[in-house]
Task: structure prediction
Amino acid sequence: MRDIEIRLFAFEWLKQQTEIHGDVLPRKLLTKGFCLSGAIFSLVGPQGIWKPKSMNLPLSITSLLGGRYPDTIDEKGEIFDYKYRGTNPFHPDNVGLRELMNHKIPLICFLRIAENKYVPLWPAYIVKENRYALSFSVVFDDIAYLLKRPELETAAQPIVNNSRREYITVTSLQRVHQKEFREKVLKAYRNQCTLCRLRHVELLDAAHIISDKEDFGDPVIENGLSLCKIHHSAFDQNIIGITPNYQVKIRKDILEEIDGPMLKYGLQSLDNESLYLPMHKDNWPDRERLEIRYKRFQSAM
Result:
């Protein structure tokens, strides 16, 4: 079986898995992989650069930003810099990535955002080798531009549109950081809404106290709150406020409103209640950020 057939099947399999499980996939699923023509293909392995035995070139690269190999993202977020395996440019794994670059063949990039949890990005292309930095530059593209080509069997990359790739790379990496932020915040709050204690993870969000587009809007746990989707929306709309002392306040007009049980028990009953806080005090919401946000809530009263 040709390398490209396996590669394209892997892309389609990943698409199916993300439709089932969402954008974050467990390592166990990726290790188990898929069966094609009676053979089993894992998508990840013990090494960051992974090539199944029956393939000629690497199928995937795996990265933990800030991990053992210091992979980085450039200032504009347009290029992902992936470190060599070791320091020898001619290690077989590094040679494999070089071959992918020279023949413009796509692969999969798995970014680890939490223990045994990965966000897959594909198709990924090696576009440059940086011998001095012992790394390869990686960008991402839209799978649609690969699959619509009549010369698909060559596995060559589609006509390069740098603007498109820059946009896709930036938005893909932003999405990864958002997923990483969500995983960290929900874990800190033990997968519960900090207001109502709802434990259904699929209904929980990691809400920013200060928006990530503003100063002090860093994607850190202290700038996050684990909120169910209803309370997240109410917080964003200044229906719910949270004081720097971790007390919940409901906007006055909402308290005076008469409606059904959702309003009464879902919002009004929370007034003057205290937040459910993480076990570790270092993860508690930052008081200064809460004060900034609470002043906005007061302005909406």
